[in-house]
Amino acid sequence: MKVLKMTLGLAAVSAMLVACEKAPTNGTATVATNAETAVGSPEIVYVNSDSLLTNYGYFKDVRDRLQGKAGQKEKDLRSQAESFQKEVQRYQQSAAGMSEQQRASTEQRLAQKQQQLQALQQSSGNELATEESEEMKKIYDRVEEYLKKISEERGYRMVLTYQRGNSAILYGDSTLDITTQVVEGLNEAYEAEKAKTTEKKEEKKK
To answer: Does a structural domain hold residue 1?
Structure first.
């Protein structure tokens, strides 16, 4: 009994486009002219969303946690479903020896239990989907905040997202790809955050 097909992945970040200032709007020639500053530093760069999420520690931790949670819920629901099926089988085997009233009462109870299981399955799926959506927003916010920070530091006017086969960017010079730097910066910040959390937990134990 499948609770939720995990969709946590590229959906939110692959649609990301962060403009740190208003981008030029008077045609491709202007974009090409303004793609680099006078000193040779690019103003428009891009990030490969596939590589970013594959290598971002926070995303991997969230994905693993949600998949584990979904797996446990699915296991619990499967166990309850199997138990219910056994009850149905026992009823089918003994129905012939029951009175009409007993059969009606048992069938009503089994029908109610089936409805409860279906409702539980639905609520479990909704709960996981809501949590997944909330976590993807957190990931998006973290990435956006970091991109704004480095854009201010390095003079980027726009950071585009690239995903092979699903992108408005048909070609991009590899020198404009800042994915590695972004992943390294995000992971460094996340590791520092985890270290602080661990320190706080240790202090509370003392």
So the answer is: no
